[in-house]
Structures are given as structure tokens and as C-alpha cells.
Design brief:
There is one protein chain. The chain is mostly helical. It contains 17 helices and four strands. The radius of gyration is 24 Å and the shape is globular. The protein binds zinc ion (ZN). Zinc ion binds next to helix 10 and helix 14.
Length: about 400
């Protein structure tokens, strides 16, 4: 294999994954105007349906525009030996490999963030705004960006420095030490996400006294779930879209309900959503996801350990001095077919878990209010009710509304 061949394989992978995404998007777009299945006929009235059609189409157009722009920039960067240029720049600042690696990724990430920010700004303040979803302000938007950057620098920079240091100390077996650090980090983040990260962006409070709390209390007692683990978050400061999720485990487990969810749904429907989230906990989905992702990280790092020191990667990207950071860039792209497969399997597992959580809610509470809540949430977020099956298989973390409806209606 020659460096030129590796270079063109990399370009090929970038282009092929773009083309696959475009084909999937086009397939999905072709089904936008399909007739709504009879079971879901009551989700939209005529006007809201037209609005949802317009929303889907704006999003599809915008996403094609964004990804085409990014493809062009990425290819230009590769063909202009951009990585060699950034590598030289970083090496002119320091000769320490850790500092060089940090500056290198700092420049690449800052550059790509500056390029994508106008797109995410447009998405929030033009598209989401036009359809009445946006509640954010430019000040909040940029404050979020700033906090995101600070976190990336501290956490991402810290982890990267540590991994490069392991590589310097132990060569190709660095992956084992890196894996241990990532595994510990994943467990800590999973447990303390709600306490460490969420407060940086949102306010969260225990559920207020009142009839909703009483209903939830009654349900929680029947399944042995402690009520002091239920929090309400001010999602309404950014968007009208509603959500609920489960996080953490052990003493740190908690269910978070968006305030928008509480505004949009009847009390019985909220209890049903909560029952679904309790289902994720009772069926050990959090632990299984955590263990799977740690194993997957181990596999990726082990592969990285095999390839990282091959000078051909650096040569392929036009960089004379082989380094960890250049190897990581090349590996990251060459890994995309594998991450495509693992991503597919993970979303398959995730959809299976959603059915299990729905079934749990049906068995321990009731299926009807859950169906009503799912329909309302779909209406309020102008969801696509007729996605292409292949698109669902590859991109959806949840089954479609129709699939969940049919599953919940089924006699078991
Ligand atoms: Zn779920």
C-alpha cells in the first residue's frame, strides 16, 4: 500500500458515507407525502398536517445544504494538505507532543465549529422560529456555545492529553490504559451527569406538590420507585419541544421531565410517560447501554492501538513526522464502515428497549394514556409519521409512532 492509495481510500470513505446519507435522505423525502396510516389519522388536523409537511421539507433541504457544504470544505481541506499545515503550525508553538496534539485538535475543532455555527444559528432562529418551536435567544445561544467550548477544552483536552501521554509511555499498549480511563469516565459521567453537567445549562427542581405529584406517588409506590428521584427541568427556556429521560443508576438514578411535557400532557398521560421511563430502569437498560458502550470503546481503542503507529497514515495526509494526532484523524475516517455497523446495532438495541419500556408502562400502568401522550408529543413536534423503513432502521433510536401504537394495542 502506498500513502497515495491510503489518501484516496480516505477520500473514498468520506465521499461514500456522504452519498449513502444522501440516498437515505432522498428515500425518506419521497415518503413525506404518503397517506397517514389510519391508526394515526387523529394526530393531525388539516392545518397542522400542512405545517408538518412544510417543516419536514425545510429540514430536509437545510440538512442537504449543510452536509454538502461540509463535504466540499472537508475535501478541499484534504486536497490542500490542510492537516500538514495545521501540524506545522502546532509544531511552531511547541515541541512537546502533548501540547502539539492539543493545539492541533484545538485548531481543527475551533475551525469546524466556526464553520458550522452559522448553520446551527439559522436552524434555531430561522427554521425552528418559523414553526414556533424556538424559545432561545441569541445571548443564550452563544452562552451555551461558550460553555460547550469550555467543557470540551477541560474534559476533552484533559482526556486527549492523558491518552497521548499513555502512548508516549507505553507505545501500542496505550489502548489498555486509555480504556480504563474512558471506562471510569463513562461510569462517573453516567452517574453524575444530572449533578455535574445539567446544572450548567438548566435549572432542575423536584416535582411540585399537587394532584400530579399524588398520582405519580401512587404509581411509583406500586412499582417500588422512590419519588425523590423525579425532577422537572426548564426545557422551555430553549424550545417548546417536550421530552423525558432516565439517567444514572444506584443512588444517583433519576427521571427528568421537561416542564414542556408537563404543560402539554394530561396528568394521566404524564404518569404513563413516567412509567415508560421507570421501565428503562427496571429492565436494566441504563446498565446494559453503559456496559455495551464501554466494550465498544475497548474494541475501538484496541484497533486504534494496532494502526496508530503506522507512518503510512501520516504520509497519506502529507505530514512528514508521524504522530498520535495525525494517526487518530486517519483512523477516525477509516473506522467509519465499522462505526456504521456498530451504530446500526446500537440503534436496533435502543428500539428494542423502547418496546420493552412501552410494554412495562402498559403492564404496570396503562397503554391507552401512553398512546395518547405519544400522539400529542408527535403532533407538538410536527413529527414525520411516514418515514422510510430503511431510514428508520439506520437512524431511529425509537420505533416509529405507528410501530409503538401497534405494539401497545396488541394483546399480550
Ligand atoms: Zn424510552
Amino acid at each position: 500500500m502506498t500513502p497515495t492509495l491510503v489518501f484516496y481510500i480516505i477520500i473514498g470513505f468520506i465521499t461514500i458515507s456522504f452519498v449513502i446519507d444522501q440516498i437515505l435522505d432522498t428515500l425518506n423525502t419521497k415518503h413525506f407525502d404518503d397517506a397517514i396510516p389510519q391508526e394515526l389519522a387523529d394526530v393531525y388536523d388539516e392545518e397542522t398536517y400542512r405545517k408538518s409537511q412544510a417543516y419536514k421539507k425545510s429540514n430536509a433541504k437545510f440538512s442537504t445544504l449543510t452536509s454538502s457544504f461540509m463535504l466540499v470544505i472537508t475535501l478541499l481541506f484534504f486536497f490542500a494538505d490542510g492537516f500538514a499545515y495545521v501540524d506545522d503550525l502546532a509544531r511552531s508553538v511547541s515541541s512537546n507532543e502533548i501540547i502539539v496534539g492539543l493545539i492541533f485538535f484545538g485548531i481543527i475543532m475551533l475551525g469546524s465549529d466556526i464553520l458550522t455555527t452559522p448553520f446551527s444559528y439559522y436552524k434555531t432562529f430561522v427554521i425552528e422560529e418559523r414553526f414556533g418551536f424556538n424559545k432561545s435567544t441569541p445571548a443564550l445561544f452563544f452562552m451555551d456555545k461558550l460553555k460547550g467550548w469550555l467543557m470540551t477544552i477541560l474534559v476533552g483536552g484533559g482526556l486527549l492529553a492523558l491518552v497521548i501521554w499513555f502512548y508516549q509511555m507505553s507505545g501500542n499498549s496505550f489502548w489498555l490504559y486509555a480504556w480504563i480511563v474512558f471506562a471510569v469516565f463513562a461510569v462517573v459521567m453516567n452517574m453524575f451527569y444530572a449533578k455535574l453537567i445539567v446544572p450548567l445549562f438548566n435549572k432542575q427542581q423536584p416535582l411540585e406538590e399537587g394532584s400530579l405529584r399524588e398520582k405519580i406517588e401512587k404509581y411509583a409506590a406500586t412499582v417500588g420507585f422512590k419519588l425523590n428521584n423525579i425532577f422537572v427541568i426548564d426545557g422551555s427556556k430553549r424550545s417548546t419541544k417536550a421530552n423525558a429521560y432516565f439517567s444514572g443508576f444506584g443512588s444517583e438514578k433519576r427521571i427528568t421531565l421537561y416542564d414542556t411535557l408537563i404543560n402539554d400532557l394530561e396528568e394521566e398521560e404524564i404518569v404513563a410517560v413516567l412509567a415508560h421511563e421507570v421501565g428503562h430502569y427496571q429492565k436494566n437498560h441504563i446498565i446494559i447501554n453503559l456496559v455495551t458502550s464501554i466494550l465498544l470503546t475497548g474494541f475501538t481503542l484496541w484497533l486504534l492501538g494496532i494502526f496508530i503507529s503506522m507512518p503510512i497514515f501520516s504520509e497519506a495526509l502529507g505530514v512528514t513526522q508521524p504522530s498520535f494526532h495525525i494517526g487518530l484523524i486517519a483512523f477516525g475516517i477509516l473506522y467509519t464502515p465499522i462505526s456504521g455497523i456498530t451504530g446500526f446495532l446500537m440503534s436496533l438495541l435502543s428500539r428494542k428497549f423502547e418496546y420493552q419500556a412501552d410494554n412495562y408502562a402498559k403492564d404496570t400502568y396503562s397503554g391507552e394514556p401512553l398512546i395518547r401522550s405519544l400522539k400529542k408529543l408527535s403532533r407538538n413536534s410536527l413529527s414525520n409519521l411516514t418515514p422510510h423503513p430503511l431510514y428508520v432502521k439506520l437512524h431511529y433510536s425509537h420505533p416509529t409512532l405507528l410501530q409503538r401504537y401497534r405494539n401497545l394495542k396488541q394483546l399480550r
